[in-house]
Amino acid sequence: MKQYIVDAFTNKPFAGNPAAVCVMDKWPSEESMMKLAMENNLSETAFIVKEEQGYHLRWFTPGTEVELCGHATLASSFVILNYYEPDSDIVRFQTLSGVLTVKRKGNLYEMDFPTFDLKEIPVTDAMESAFGVRPVKAVLGLDLICVFDSEEQVRKMEPDQIKLMQIEGRIQNATAKGTDVDCISRSFCPKLSIAEDPVCGAAHVQIADYWIKELHKNPIDAYQASKRGGYLHCEKREEGRMVISGEAVLVAISDLAVELE
Predict the structure, then answer these.
(1) Which of the ends of the chain has fewer CB neighbours closer than 10 A, N or C?
(2) Could you tell me the domains of the chain?
């Protein structure tokens, strides 16, 4: 079985967010997929099987299976559209979040995601303790989004110093208004055994939704300010959908020396 390593939300290798992509003839056990994800030790390993109604896509972190992942979807579409269906410019994936459609438009891969209800919640001392800086606002959707006064505060956060908040299953996102782009963000995932997700497409479904409303601007350009860094183009569409677009680059193709049971 071949495994592809693709850097997502970037046009140069060793930047953006790396994902492993495995295209298989049939499903191995969840235990085997979990073990490979742990072995890869990337924020996501994507597993794809072609079925009658298209491709079925699942995502695993080193700690668990997740219901939505943007960068590994981008990486998966890059692999399918360049190595399996090069004459096509569209691919559909059946996932835990429903059918996700990805279109290739030039160098960009345009992903159509569902949005989530966002509600403002009180800023707490636990949030300040977790990030080391007190947020000015907190919003809860699929994940927790903490809004800060300045881009500098977000950029200076250190993953090893981010503490785990007792909000079950939530990724902890920090965001602020940007200078060269519309917004700056960081995404910390201690509950998923990931100190920091370098560039998180799923988080930006919510982050972009917040800033589109706050800035009264659509679409917006976002930058995730991890050490690797990556750019996302975000546009809210009708019927509660968010389109997240980005580039991708291949880093490696390998053959697994073991069979997944």
Answers:
(1) C
(2) 2-113+245-255 (3.10.310.10), 119-239 (3.10.310.10)
